[in-house]
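call fold(seq) -> tokens
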Amino acid sequence: MSTPTNQPVAPASRKTAVVVGHGMVGHRFVEALRSRDEAGQWQVVVLSEERLPAYDRVGLSAYVGAWDAAALALPGNEYAGDALVELRLGQRAESIDRDARKVTTSAGDTIAYDALVLATGSYPFVPPVPGHDRPECFVYRTIDDLDGIRAAAAAAGPGAVGVVVGGGLLGLEAANALRLLGLTPHVVEYNQRLMPAQVDEGGGAILERLVTELGLVVHTGVGTASIDAAGNGIRVSLSDDSVIDASLVVFSAGVRPRDQIARDSGLEVGPRGGVITDLGLQTSDPSIWAIGECAAVEGTCYGLVAPGYTTAEIVADRLLGGAGEFPGADMSTKLKLMGVDVASFGDAHGVTEGALSVVLHDAAKGTYAKLVVSDDARILLGGILVGDATAYAALRPLVGRPLPAEPAALISPAGAELGADALPDDAQICSCNNVSKGAICGAIAEGACDVPGLKSCTSAGTSCGGCVPMLKKLLEQSGVEMSKALCEHFGQSRAELFQIVQVTGIRTFSGLITKYGKGTGCDICKPTVASILASTSSEHILDGEQAALQDTNDHFLANLQKNGTYSVVPRMPGGEVTPDQLITIGQIAKEFDLYVKVTGGQRIDLFGARVEQLPRIWQRLVDVGMESGHAYGKSLRTVKSCVGSTWCRYGQQDSVGMAVLLEKRYRGLRSPHKLKLAVSGCARECAEARGKDVGVIATEHGWNLYVGGNGGLTPKHAVLLAGDLDDETLIKYIDRYLMFYVRTADRLQRTAPWQEALEGGIDYLRQVVCEDSLGIAAELEAAMAQHVAGYRDEWAAVLEDEEKLSRFVSFVNAPEETDPTIAFDDTGERKVPVLLGMPDLPVGAGTGTATHGK
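ret:
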């Protein structure tokens, strides 16, 4: 007699499920089983060969640059507090004793099981090319793989050549990773086009052109013949007798099901690999199940995460008495490679009998769109989108259904817009988590009023995020009003408040909140309005009422550090500095006992200054021609540059001169978030321009302009806005881009998410900036010209104003006292701050009057 599922199961009668593998699918299985097993019928033991618990392998490329493994970690991957899950990291399953139902691990442990779930995934296929096992050869599969590639790239140095064998999805991701590491990537693809499984000949041609413009060297229709030692590097010989001199090779030529342990234990496997299962994911042994990439469901392996998640859910259901079956898989994919949109869905190659293709190939814009329809052009069968995949979210759910308009109209820029109302309730919106339109609309009806709410209650949009635009459309269609209020005191968005300030001429926070807001304001709206006021005039940010609006950094024109001291960063346009300025910086550091560090933005940071010391430090810097570097502000930080054509034999333009010009032009420009620019003198990209909000890369004929690159937790690569520009046009376009961003972005919104949130994305932005589609180009240029003409160094302005200088004391009521809680440890190799408690202070110098808010 079975135990009712709503009654707790005694430990003695509890069953054990052993999970071999802790990737994304293995983790999904554990989550599904534990969330449904209310009675605690199953104890779960997870064997993870990797040293890290489950992480987002689909987003592996995001690890490059950030190098933060924790950012990829899947939520709940350590099962903290769950006594029924045991996670064993660094232990793999060595063998299976099917008769005894036991697994032996690499640690020598033996674990008995009632159910064994194989979630071993896949392994990278390395073609048997002579030399494939050389130390310079890598695969692209795990975080450890990327750490190895990173070390090899660092040893090779910037501009070295890296070869990627394989031009599919993972191959292009690997090539992008090499590019981000400063290498020059070559992609070798045996087929006649890139991503042959996803795109056709026309889409492949556009894709190759776009990635070539971004710095990749593409070799299609050739194989890799051998890899040999050559001097300090290697020589990669291709099947067409050409040779690539390189420093490293990354194999990304596809994956194979990881089924060796199943083979060794006598389980049935497919002729092309994979553990054979039925539709319930049960193998030839009724106690063993297979999920994810290692499973060959009725002979077919599926290499995407969405069908993998489905298999995990089915096995969890089966172990709890259910009868779920694998429904088939949606093999649609949508991705952004180096800023290039690529999407493929349904019968993308038109193999269905009688299928017709409708194609829009716009070589000038770099876009390719193809819809595959039935022989009567009424049913959508599939499609391919390259360069612009905005229609993907609406088109993919319609596969197998009647089209709501003419096929050509759905992919034409001037054609019909496909709204969420055209989709039936059973249309799958989120393929990763199998969430239908009906489920999402039901969640909205029950009170989910924004995208985070929908994610929380339906799981839609929580994996790849490709369905998020459709979630927004469904919210709008349901009549949910998406609040744009800045905070509880202003019902307007930041962009709307900017327009109000610009039109009304209001120059104070009190005047703005009295007329257009309510209450007294908060730490959200005060700095935001302060930034708007600074963006629309050349007034000093500490003038009058504005001083009280600033956060601590802007209030003291320096960066507050963890122990209450400040750092001082003078501006060094383009990284240039004179000997006298360097000497002065050294003298200041010695005199005030400051810690000195060269920053990633080609400047020098002086740490450990007390608030009362700041004006004296500034005076010394101003006397040798230096000024505030605005490291404390939501404004332009730096314009990084390489040495360019002046010194470098590869340089094609004067990158330093351009960087100095841009930094002096945009210094002090207040914006919704910090701004970083860079100028590289050639495609070798030593200044890492495509990781910046605005990146400029020299070409033989001028400059390529890239926009929307950001670092942080979710790094974004800048995308090409315009190419081969002369100096005048380049500056004009940057003026327009920056001022349009300043006017329309949300509070604390970086350029990358702002750019992606624009209806039409980069194409719309290109129309606004380059083609003046809104008719505001002259206005944006005039606003920037006004900023340039009105710029004045903020440090120098404080030094000339006794009232402003009076702010720079540790304690208002005891201006001669220094803060006794500030201390440092000088015993190690470098000076570090020490955190102390607050001691007794002089009478009248209570903590409530500390100006720096400690």
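Residues 1-5, 837-854 have pLDDT under 50 and may be disordered.
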